[in-house]
Known about the structure:
The chain is 30% helix and 31% strand. By secondary structure, the chain is α/β, with parallel strands linked by helices. The protein folds into five domains: 11-126, no CATH class; 135-320, P-loop containing nucleotide triphosphate hydrolases (Rossmann fold); 328-411, Translation factors (Elongation Factor Tu (Ef-tu), domain 3, Beta Barrel); 439-547, Rossmann fold; 553-647, Beta Barrel (Elongation Factor Tu (Ef-tu), domain 3), CATH 2.40.30.
Amino acid sequence: MQTEVKNKTGMTNNIAELAQEFELKPGQVFGVLDEFGIEHDGSTFEADPDTLELVRDALTEHLGSKEIVLRPNPTPRDIAAALGVSQSDVQKALLTKLKVMATLTTSLKADVAEKLAQLFDSTVRWADAPKPKMGPTAAVNGAARKSGAQPRPPVVTIMGHVDHGKTSLLDYIRKTNVASREHGGITQHIGAYQVELPEGKITFLDTPGHAAFTNMRARGAQVTDIAILVVAADDGVMPQTIEAIQHIQSAEVPMIVAVNKIDKAGANPERVLTQLPEYNVIPEAFGGQVITAPVSAVTGEGVPHLLEMVLLQAEVMDLRADAKAKLEGVVIEAKLEKGRGPVATVLIQNGTLRIGDSIVAGQTYGKIKAMTDYRGEKLTEAGPSTPAEILGLSEVPQAGDRIEIQSDERSAREVAQSRVDDERARTIVVKARGITLRDYRNLIQEEGLKELPLIIKADVQGSVEAVKGMLEKVRNDEVETKIMSSGVGSITESDVLLASASNAIVVGFNVKPEPGAKHEAERHKVEIRTYTIIYELIEDIEAAAKGMLEPKFEEQYLGTAEVRQRLQFSKKGVIAGCYITDGKVTRNAMVRVSRGKEVIHEGRVATLRHFKDDVREVTLGMECGVTFEGWEEFAQGDTFEAYEMVQVNA
Ligand code: GDP
């Protein structure tokens, strides 16, 4: 095997020599060549003297410090893995040395990641950086990568248990920080507003309530950058606090805990801090990464500090948007108002929305007639992180609907209409589209899925613990379960929304879904599986984890039809002119054709027509033209039964 470096002047340089010079193994020399994008064929490479010099530089740098390869926006968890050090060491270095507050899953700015790596005697190479022809890589500057993008205000949601002071806190912040100008005091107009501090702006979504947060996420709209968890100092962690924590953690949104009501006589903020670690929220005071801020929404004590923390967190996240980019926005809330028509509060995430723009929002469309800000003042345009109320939509959109600009109102209408049609087609044709245990089987096998997210509800705390304990142990080489949340009580709408947002399955033991939850599960195609025997539950989940949960199908009768005519068409083949004598026949139905008492064919409907139109179904008393897949030996007087196969354990 040749391992030599040849150059154009005829000088040769042996890889083995380089290896010796730098006290590396030949394989390591090749590794460094790879890292710097210097071509070789695994055994030799050709190089001119300049390149050889750069190879030497590269090797020198390689020896100088350890290099780690990171993708853009790495999290502390990624960095710990790349450095081969513990996550807690990385967090400690972040907090104590760099004064940066971040959860394990917070995306870090490039310069923070690089400083962090330096603390561990390492340098960073960015994975997506264009490979230099030769020579060491300059770190890619995050800002340059997103050219045109400017820092934008963070979008913040406040969550927590009822009566812990979410509304009061929002009110206080609004009153003290929203410039009232000529208005005598502020009355809030829309469900989102912006506050302006000397250090920057913050956009608050005024939709306290976990359903709103998760509902949007379930619809693919992650609008919140930072969540403030409000916990009353006199009350401590309560059920909805836990629920909020689970929602925030599942969304992987950085959390800041506001310990509220510190002015009250019975307030015990310390106790709140000691309660949080149980839910994997480790306050800074205990060496963790979660910032906590004692506040009073009544006296205002601590609120400025809380807002500072929000801005600090936003800075770490390096939130950016480009006012000139293509518009991206989302509906925060919408309603029908007398005399004004559909009114929607939207949040612009990227680009700029202007009066007169033709937009599509989910399945509705329109031309923006008027736009106002949170103070009720007229806007002609709204840029990134700006909440605005818009008028001019044809119908009321849903919270979480994305907004897109179209060239004119007509195309906007067409896009909206095609979405309405698609939705209709989906609900008719597709029975279950969401993730089911059976889907997991496929995902595990085909896409190498590693986690099976579950939400557990049970009748009493004892069963919750038992089910949780057993399910946590379900794992094999390929996959393990991930309990997203667990709790006592029936399956609620909020459980379903969390499941939908995190592609989880809801498992109930000795509990049933509430009617609202059932409805939401159907809407979001979330699978709810309920059990009364614990071993059946465990067995199913084990089978799913093994990718072995076999689907069970049952035949479901649809209807019966009689063949009245054989219609021969040259192009289309033979059509059975039929009459529906019971129920209905659908286009994708399975059929069992009988002549007298004998079944003469089993198969599928290929086409279904009513007069000249292709139709999805025909019902009792209607005539239709049917062709069967790969079979046309029917005769007048034959009858057939239509049915479909429905999965019963999905
Ligand atoms: P929400 O349900 O979380 O929105 O809670 P609210 O903001 O409606 O507050 C519930 C109650 O707690 C109200 O009576 C508030 O006046 C009171 N409250 C809220 N924050 C504070 C606070 O910091 N100190 C005191 N003493 N009371 C507060």
